[in-house]
Batch of 2 targets.
Target 1
Amino acid sequence: MKVGFFDAHKFDKNVFEQVNKNYSFEFVYFDTTLDSRSSVLASGLDAVCCFVNDHLDRETLKILSETNVRIVALRCAGFNNIDLDAAKEFGIKIVRVPKYSPFAVAEHATALILCLNRKIHKAYNRVRDHNFSLDGLVGHDINGKTVGILGAGQIGSVFAKIMNGLGCEILVYDKYVNDELVSKYSCKYVKLDELFSKSDIISLHLPLNKDTVHVIDKDAIARMKNNVMLINTGRGGLVDSGALLWALKNEKIGHAGLDVYEEEEEVFFKDVSDYTLKDDCLARLLTFPNVIITSHQAFLTCEALENIAKTTMKSLDQFQKGESLNNEVTKSN
Ligand code: NAI
């Protein structure tokens, strides 16, 4: 079975080649992301393996089906970039990695909080310049602060446990109640209004879909505490970037830690340091000393990469053998 990797990086190749020692798939790697223009590269492939910024819209899926690709293996959990109706219509199976390391993402969200709060990014640069002064580096105790979590699924619940360990009050907004979070980790399930009005730190762990897009908009921000810290390791589209920019300029949001960004596919995972940044919103966000942006790296741990590779190869193997697919994406996921 011949598998084409789109948006492939060195870290993907290393781990997939390693895990492939237990299988015998033939791999082809493409640097480019998959969209309707690049989908011709799939000619001769049986499967494509994609990531978060590949565009699996109707047109792309149609071309893939015409080139006889029968399965798309997402090496990620989120599937907001796929037209599932079109995939079904063209007879293309979609599999994903629903769980690879909730710890990786939850720990990255925590790293953003701690770094922003104690201004580690500023201190790091300062001492390298032999400036050992402390002015402007005052933070707060995280202990005792109220943390609002939107989406307490696999990642959000690990994050809640970490925040509980730091001594925080935890408010959760989710469609479903996780009893363990309530009984063991003192989480309180609340409506969005209460979460917005009481939280010192708000962390987003929802999937991106039609109900959650721009859950953080100007209206939501207006209901938040002044100086709130916003952390987004979910998906860029959860936050209206224009509203975020407005709130930072007007000092309504005190800190923002972003691992994802609405228009990230233009630049994330790429070295564009030789070019002019065309995205004015991103360029402005990067000027704030109280904003940290990472390039969708929350998942990037050795453990997560190994789990991604193992689960993806198992799905491809199941498909090849005609077995039922444990991690098939359907509209009910
Ligand atoms: P999950 O499916 O385990 O949890 C999502 C939670 O959100 C569930 O508890 C669900 O009930 C809740 N939810 C969904 N829609 C809702 C709505 N409309 N209102 C209220 N609650 C709702 O997903 P998991 O594994 O925790 O991942 C969450 C998201 O994190 C993924 O969808 C993905 O977009 C993002 N992610 C980001 C990564 C990164 O590297 N930055 C890596 C992995 C995931």
Target 2
Amino acid sequence: MTWPILPGAVVNGRPATLGVLGGGQLGRMFVHAAQSLGYETVVLDPDRASPAGRISHHFICADYRDPNALRELAARAQAVTTEFENVPAQALAELARARAVSPPADCVAIAQDRIREKAHFARCAAAASGVAPAPHAVIESEADLAAVPAALLPGILKTARLGYDGKGQARVGTRAELASAWQQMGRVACVLEQMLPLALECSVIVARGADGTVVSLPVQRNLHRGGILAVTEVFEQNLPAALAQQAQAATKNIVSELDYVGVLCVEYFVLQDGRLVVNEMAPRPHNSGHYTVDACDQSQFDLQVRTLAGLPLVAPRQHSAAIMLNLLGELWFDAAGSPRQPPWADVLALPGARLHLYGKAQARPGRKMGHLTVIGQDAAGVRQQALRAAELLGIEAF
Ligand code: ATP
Ligand code: MG
């Protein structure tokens, strides 16, 4: 295979093609970025109506483990990435035998498992960054349960695998609640984390190339509601400069120590005493980075394309202040529970408003249907328009 995979190249008589495992909104925005550079795209997803599958040149509708589907993907694409961390790491490993694959399967496997993920964070903290994960204990047996230190309560019990948007989590105040929550989770491997007094949450997205070059996006300040990201704010002074620098440095360390290739997002807590704590990582672009499509000269999806194809990584620059509002399914229902269309015409009349809908036919409460990014020259103006948009949409002010 010729490397890098240049846009517009012809490979075996066909246009250079990039593949993605997973057809959700992250895959859809990856496809947009790849196509705008001139690549063809191929998406593999089990859902016939997947947001990315619907706009890709090629779509393979199959399970992620289907060997024929993986063969077809490898036959069509010169390089393959993932938009979804719960894609079987085995599928990535298999594809990697025939094709360029990023991120590497073993890195995805670490990010899929909170126990291994926290161990990596703890190693990085000890070796260099000093930014540690929350105090926690691994629970895999009755003995582990009995040995939980009292200092971890009240805490949050999280399944080691397959959690997202606050799913697979239970807040527990006492040993009895902990025992019954673990029972309810089917006694699968879990992590109990001490409940921390959060002042705010933030995240950092970095991209690392195969040659070890790392570039970073600005630090995102995030507001979660009900375990789901609601608002991301990115502009000068969105959090104290020293904390922002510390979070970026810790993220660079985490990505380099993994020998990672691709786009990685690390989520952090800032505690009420000002300390930074590392929460979790996603081996892919992240919801908190969607603003980059409208507010940066290179989006997180452009960076994903570049790392996948081996193109140069240039430090991205944010050119506009930005606030992103997630558009969840409840906005498609009125107070009486009847279906409605959100007031797009009014929202789009606001200066700097950029609407992104993912093409999902069915709205359900909590389902990510799209996002709205408001951009502008200064934070105050952006905040004013974003608050206006929230009011029009029925999103609680922030
Ligand atoms: P994601 O959708 O980001 O993958 P997730 O379901 O994997 O989310 P976490 O990021 O671990 O879950 O937790 C979701 C939210 O719950 C956090 O953003 C934070 O608001 C809160 N939270 C999680 N852990 C703690 C903690 N130890 N102390 C206080 N709050 C916490
Ligand atoms: Mg999270």
